[in-house]
Amino acid sequence: MNDFHQITVIGLGLMGGSMAMALKERIPCKVVGYDTHPETCRLARETALVDQVAENMAAAVAQADLVILATPVGSYTTLFEAMAPVLKPGTMVTDLGSVKVPAMTAATEYLLPETVFVGGHPLAGSEKGGLPAATPTLFENAYYFLTPDEKTPETAINRLKTLVSTLGAFPVTLEAGRHDEILANTSHLPHMMASLLAAIVGEKADESMTAFTGSGFRDTTRIAAGSPALWEEIFHLNRRQLLVCLEDLEKKVQAVARALKQEDRKWMQDFLEKGKVFRDQLPAAGKDYLPAWYELYVDIKDEPGALATITGVLAKAGVNIREIEILHAREGEKGAVRLAFLSAEAEQQAMKALSGEGCSFARSKGEKQDAHHQSSH
Ligand SMILES: NC(=O)c1ccc[n+]([C@@H]2O[C@H](COP(=O)([O-])OP(=O)(O)OC[C@H]3O[C@@H](n4cnc5c(N)ncnc54)[C@H](O)[C@@H]3O)[C@@H](O)[C@H]2O)c1
Ligand SMILES: O=C(O)C(=O)C[C@]1(C(=O)O)C=C[C@@H](O)C=C1
């Protein structure tokens, strides 16, 4: 149960705006917001994003039971220093920042001992920034890291876990250093690779190349459109871990180049095979943390209304879809929709309902089941 009477969100951009919306929808408490950008404050007031947009940081946090920082991590030291004398004793502070060791260090250094800081980081976001890009569903079905340390009271961790679960996310507790190591590999390096790919084509200043960027290039570079200021800061703050990743990358690039030069096609085939195997099993990755998923891959023709047919059939059958994802869809061609359910029962119900409509689908175990096969059971 939520026991925060007032939650204050500092920074009302993509992440803070989404957090404020989600809190307003799901948590019965007063939500106060603060941002240094006047246009963001104006929009927040105009759209009634929060119950109150504070005039200054001190006013925003003075009565808060929980403060959530949703600003760039580089701003934390100044913010912590300014809020430390204003916070009520026992107030909890958390954040949404992408790098956790510097956040934990700044909190220890600048917040008073009676303030409880627990680092947080939802593994959800977008390349688009600012309040206009915010959405209340951003945290649904997302992993949400919490990085307490050995001094963090268990009750504080549990209060945040409850809040995170109420937002529809999956709380995962991790040591801050381990978090930064993992995210260097799975988020920060990919962002750098996307920017590298964008640079390779962009710097050629060749119009044909820009024109002929297909979905492969677009898929692999989407995140390069993220805020340069935000990402430069993330790279800088996690540079130690990122440099380890880059050393690994350098070795791998050299190995690939060597195989090409030596025409070692077997090596290349094996390398590509390993990548495919890893990528193919990704939806199941993280199952140590997530409750078991029951997944169906439904074949669809990529045409208007195809998705609505599936969701309509399942809604009629009263089946709750936990996650939905469109895969490999290209205009006018066949694609697939990945549906995830939380129980085997829901998956069974979905299979029954879909086969009744003549849909073909595969289960995540890989066994192909078509409408005929299903309806004969
Ligand atoms: N963008 C993502 O996909 C993503 C995902 C997870 C976590 N994060 C983290 O969330 C945080 C916010 O990122 P975002 O994408 O929402 O950025 P954003 O630019 O959309 O929003 C940041 C907001 O903070 C405000 N701000 C900046 N300094 C401030 C200060 N000192 N006081 C008050 N307001 C201030 C800005 O005016 C802006 O409105 C970052 O720490 C980032 O690492 C981002
Ligand atoms: O999907 C995206 O656009 C993101 O960049 C989200 C993403 C990521 O998955 O790497 C990026 C940075 C955040 O710290 C968390 C999530």
Automatic annotation (TrEMBL):
It comes from the Bacteria. The keyword Protein biosynthesis does not apply. Keywords: Amino-acid biosynthesis, Aromatic amino acid biosynthesis, NAD, Oxidoreductase, Tyrosine biosynthesis. The keyword Nuclease does not apply. It catalyses: prephenate + NAD(+) = 3-(4-hydroxyphenyl)pyruvate + CO2 + NADH. Pathway: Amino-acid biosynthesis; L-tyrosine biosynthesis; (4-hydroxyphenyl)pyruvate from prephenate (NAD(+) route): step 1/1. It is an enzyme of class 1 (oxidoreductase). One of its GO terms (molecular function) is prephenate dehydrogenase (NADP+) activity. Its EC number is 1.3.1.12. It comes from Anoxynatronum buryatiense. This is Prephenate dehydrogenase.
